Amino acid sequence: MGGILVIAEHKKGVLQDITWEMLAKGTQLASSGGLDLTAAILGANIKDLAEKLITGANRVLILEDAKLGNYNWEIYCEAVGAIINEYRPLLTLIGHTAFGMDLAPRLAAHLNIPLSTACIDLQIKDGGLAALRQMYDGKVNAEVTSSGAPSYMATIRPGSFSGQAPPNTGGEIKELTVSLKDSGRTKFIEYIEAALGGVDITQADILVSVGQGIGDKKNLPLVEELASILGGRLSCSRPIVDKKWLPKEHQVGSSGKTVKPRVYLAIGISGSFQHLMGIKGGTIIAINKDPKAPIFRVADYGIVGDLFQIVPILKEKAKALKTG
Ligand SMILES: Cc1cc2nc3c(=O)[nH]c(=O)nc-3n(C[C@H](O)[C@H](O)[C@H](O)COP(=O)(O)OP(=O)(O)OC[C@H]3O[C@@H](n4cnc5c(N)ncnc54)[C@H](O)[C@@H]3O)c2cc1C
């Protein structure tokens, strides 16, 4: 094949955003290099998902097996390894997610393929791979080049590319059969959903995010109410979580969640690089009393002032717009 292979990621019957993001980058790499783009999907009862994927690739490989119903690194390593060995892609893309972080290094070692992890951009140069990856918690972007191998592998940091299901490219779906062994050494026991407390900030369209400028836990309802009037969700910077004012699921940033809302309202947040690393896209509106706060360097709109004066005005305006 010699082209680009994207390993689709899905959870509970839903294709994950990272799949479309990888396909978007894969499409770009394939078209600039005159290569084919193939998506592979593995699991049980996944035919519907394979149909959806064909909008994003020239070919979809589907490997359906009850043994692939739940993630088990041994079986997935064998299955994805068999696909790579048969199709010999120039580049395999896997999400830098819990799934990909577990699978990719094992697979790369198993197949002896050079692996670049946590990539935020990729280029194919002279038959090799130039990967831009973040290091030291995002302080440094390093270009890591791999060359001289017939095949490369990279994990892609979620949110690095904007990905939507593209219009149908009319490709083919090919069903594969691989006889998979289950050594029984690794067993799937139970799927435990992260305790979101009803909050999944990664899926929110509007995020009202609060930082240390809020001063005290007792002031949180002020921003919580604004989030609710705007139909958005409440997120925060890390110190708010460290102080146990909000659960970890609300944290945006390098050690928190990566978010892609349409609107990100940063209230009393300075804009450290660790925080900004978690915001991918959308219109950023900042409220901060310090005109030199770094958040204003990335904000599309900025309000310099005291949040305790501004947020109540915003609440009133938003309420009036809703009722008016
Ligand atoms: C390894 C590592 C990982 C990290 N991961 C993350 C992460 O994932 N997410 C994250 O957020 N941080 C993370 N941090 C912490 C990060 O470095 C910053 O310390 C943190 O983002 C600062 O949070 P803040 O902006 O809420 O607070 P501050 O930096 O203290 O900023 C508060 C802001 O509020 C403003 N302000 C104060 N009072 C008011 C008022 N009344 N009205 C308006 N504005 C006001 C101030 O001018 C200031 O700009 C990490 C740090 C490390 C070392």
Features:
324 residues; alpha/beta; 9-stranded mixed β-sheet; 5-stranded parallel β-sheet; 9 helices; 16 strands; 29% helix; binds flavin-adenine dinucleotide
Please describe the biggest sheet, giving its number of strands, its sense, and whether it closes into a barrel. Answer: 9 strands, mixed
Structural class computed from helices and strand pairing: alpha/beta
Subunit arrangement of the protein: single chain
Strand content: 25-35%
Low-confidence stretches: none
What strand line-up does the widest sheet have? 9-8-7-10-6-1-4-5-11
Give the proportion of residues in helices: 25-40%
Radius of gyration: 22 Å
- Supply the number of helical segments: 9
The average pLDDT score comes to: 92
Query: Quick one: overall form?
Result: elongated
What's the total count of β strands?
16
> Which molecules other than protein and nucleic acid are bound?
flavin-adenine dinucleotide
How many angstroms separate the termini? Answer: 59 Å
Query: H/E element string?
Result: EEEHEHEHEHEEEEEEHEHEHEHEH
